Amino acid sequence: MSTGQDPDSGEYEIRVRGHLEARWASWFDGLTLTKESDGTTSIRGPVVDQAGLHGLLRKLRDTGLPLVSVIELDDDRPALHPTTHRTTVGDPS
User: Fold this and answer.
1) Is residue 52 a contact partner of residue 10, using CB atoms and an 8 Å limit?
2) The whole model's pTM is what?
3) Which terminal residue of the chain has fewer beta carbons within 10 Å of its beta carbon, N or C?
């Protein structure tokens, strides 16, 4: 029996190196874009399923900005990496 909710849906934070301007927000269908002080942009919000996540990653590829990280924020499922720390590529910490 289906519950109507895709088990692969969830909240994600995706980071890219560089800053996306506010005009890109409409291209990412309701996701929140935040320019971070470390020179990255975080893109946060709900993703319907794995196909939606892959579509989002294709859009990001088309911006030409390097992908830094993809993190699932949904607390209802066990973390794949429970000790994940937010670091960027090249960060010595």
Assistant:
1) no
2) 0.70
3) N
